[in-house]
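Annex B. Sample input.
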Amino acid sequence: MVYSPKILVFLTSIAMFFRNFICNALIMERLLATIWVTNYENNRSCWFTFTWVTIDIIVTVINAYFFTNSSSSNNLLVTVIWQFILSTIGIIEIYIFFKLLKYNNKVYFERKSSALDEQKLTGRYQLSENIRTTKQLIPTLCLHVCVNIIGGISVVLPYFNLVTSPFGILFCVNFLSFVPITYLTFLIELSMILYHPFLKRDFKKFIKNILICKNSKIIKLHRKSKNLKTKTD
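Annex B, continued. Sample output.
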């Protein structure tokens, strides 16, 4: 199935799989923040990040290996199973995220009308953080699920012999899956910027500066050409 140099496929697939797996760590982090809402901010540990990143790296390398050597039927089957598992988990995670958002909103408004001692203020702050972060991550998570589903199509078609010729695999599988994945990957990065208040603010400033700089250059060129025309006349 793979026609590119294996080392390039391996490195590319590592980046792709790691990006998709790391979403699971974000889900678990928000789940823990919801369970231990009153003291999560003070009791966070670096071991959570270390553990999940280690698990993600191990799973990523294993999947990248089987994907790179997917010319074998057994190896391709492993990739098909993993893509199915990832897509299923992703759909479940989206459901969990919406439930977390609904629950945090409910608890937040219940506590808003109650007395505000120091502990409850800390809890309300964490609830507000949970709501904000969940809203930011839902679009990104939905796009990740789309990437997993489309990526799964690229291995399901050859495995079930729906596409058999080298041209069919290169065109119908690689082109029709990798092109949408490329655009979706861009939308993932863009959604993380647009749904984050500070990143969105900085992004708007960046775009505004580019447009102002472009317009000022056009005005200067127009004035320069006008002056040259006047001198010529």
